[in-house]
Design goal:
This protein is an all-alpha fold. Among the domains are: about 70 residues, no CATH class; about 30 residues, no CATH class. Helix content is about 50%, strand content about 0%. The protein contains eleven helices and two strands; from the N terminus they run E-E-H-H-H-H-H-H-H-H-H-H-H. Strands 1-2 form a two-stranded antiparallel sheet. Strand 1 and strand 2 form a beta hairpin. The chain is globular, with a radius of gyration of 20 Å. About 5% of the residues are buried.
């Protein structure tokens, strides 16, 4: 990956933080000191592996690391099934497979309303559901796949609506396609 694809972190040079300054470490420790850390969702093996490979957690982050471990052990004893990822080239049948799997109660889906209003799904989305479902297009346009209130949607759509970096932003803003594609795919 070229240096230019990951040069900026919070508007400053990435390499300057990695080589010289404690500011990146401070930012990571500040994030780790919260319970909204990405490792909170790790399974026990992944979490312990990450802690071992990185010489454990700093003393001030031990309570969070223990909470993460407790949560991961509790999740590992539940009946949550291993996720299934559908990966394939465009026009290869992945959407059709996604729709077929979405018909089964064995799999969860993201509805059009949850995709479009990820932060408000349980509030505004629920209150306005009848009105919003009437506003849904008949099909996706690009491939004539029907869109209903219960049809599965691409998981990347809510991700694009919840953060500033997504490959979908390249499609939303074609004038900045290359920039948004590089940021959404290569971080």
């Amino acid at each position: 990956m070229s240096h230019s694809l990951h040069r900026k972190v919070a508007g400053e040079s990435f390499n300057a933080h990695c080589i010289r300054g404690p500011t990146l470490l401070e930012a990571v420790e500040k994030q780790m000191a919260t319970y909204a850390h990405p490792l909170m969702g790790a399974d026990p093996k992944t979490l312990l592996g990450a802690l071992i490979r990185n010489d454990g957690a700093s003393l001030k982050c031990v309570p969070q690391a223990l909470a993460f471990l407790g949560a991961s052990i509790a999740r590992s004893e539940s009946d949550i099934k291993t996720p299934v990822f559908i990966v394939g080239h465009w026009r290869s049948g992945t959407t059709h497979l996604h729709n077929l799997m979405g018909c089964s109660r064995e799999f969860g889906i993201i509805s059009p309303l949850a995709a479009g209003l990820p932060w408000e799904t349980l509030t505004l989305g629920a209150w306005l559901r009848p009105l919003l479902e009437k506003a849904l297009p008949e099909d996706r346009g690009v491939d004539q796949v029907a869109v209903t209130g219960g049809s599965p949607q691409e998981d990347e759509i809510p991700v694009a609506n919840m953060q500033p970096y997504s490959v979908f932003h390249a499609l939303y803003f074609p004038g900045k396609f290359e920039k948004n594609f590089a940021e959404g795919v290569f971080f």
